């Protein structure tokens, strides 16, 4: 990450297949260095999975009915990428392009964990799990069970930490803690705290572990960020910088021919010859386009498996999650087929709001994807009611759902390699004058940062070659 610029000017002509974040970033960087880029995009507009839906938009789907988006003024639904980690290059592009950002609440102690039919606040689940883990480790330490690993000094230091980590009592017992939360929070009086936790066995059986460690990874660590007003401002600004006239939409590529002096690309409406080509289509779709790049390229392109992913936006006539549950942004994790509920990290205290009523992948996503939009909503509401009660089903003004495996010319939420093997590295190299790029060619699959890093890598290589050959 950080600022990026190709050094020196290049004058070559480059045809870029796909105007998603990868293709746009490549065109943007090449454009800054003087290249003449043309982008061919099969969909009706640029952006790819970077898709934000607002009232008046229409979302079509393969083998399914189109949906009219009915969200009210000022509301939006990020059908694709929504959260950005601080170390990601995405934020550098936001800064460079003047795309405003704000915090995205990824971890919220006030949100719920719903497992085995029970909902608890995340703070409660965390207090109990940390408490019991600390108790066990503290007692093992104290009894000398770890003496082969610990000096006397280590032992004291570890015990000091564990008392704090688990909020343990004088005998190193976890007996609950104000960290679990309150029925009535303290104010003029001391409030009424939750009752003591269940037993260690009960807490373990509740199975909250996965949910409370969700944001431990470097890619999910709080605070994360989001684009003010919807992620697609990144697309809008990139398109402005590149020049909208460089993008041909509705252009489905039908052939790629690598030639000694250039690349010829045909689409269902024309043909173009350029000095180089950057193919940024999803690998499973690129694999089906006739080309002369060799059987090993086709075989490699077939390896990454597309993952089904779905999301639903639920618009409510009032922000009951703020008013009643006192949840301001964040995510409730569940063991239901909705996987999770996202509360909006914008528009606090506004009149209406949009929840993400499911964000799932794999079989759960396929299950929802196979339903009609109405049935997706019905099912999502039935599930969410298990956490939030009857209010979850009242006051829904509109909904909009996306099944990425059913989005034309995309057909997947992301594509994953079974292994980062020689096929992966093969496609990181150009095949003749054709370069491949996309988040699927990085270790940042399913992140805009992957798309951008891949684009940077490829334009760097291409530019080096152009400078050497002139
Ligand atoms: N980037 C997507 C997200 O934040 C998908 C993803 C999830 C990727 C978890 C990696 C890990 O939800």
Automatic annotation (TrEMBL):
The keyword Nucleotide-binding does not apply. Coiled coil: none annotated. InterPro entries: Amino_oxidase, FAD/NAD-bd_sf, Flavin_monoamine_oxidase, TAT_signal. Keywords: Membrane, Transmembrane, Transmembrane helix. Residues 22-461 form the Amine oxidase domain. Pfam families: Amino_oxidase (PF01593). Gene3D superfamilies: 1.20.1440.240, 3.90.660.10, FAD/NAD(P)-binding domain (3.50.50.60). This is Flavin monoamine oxidase family protein.
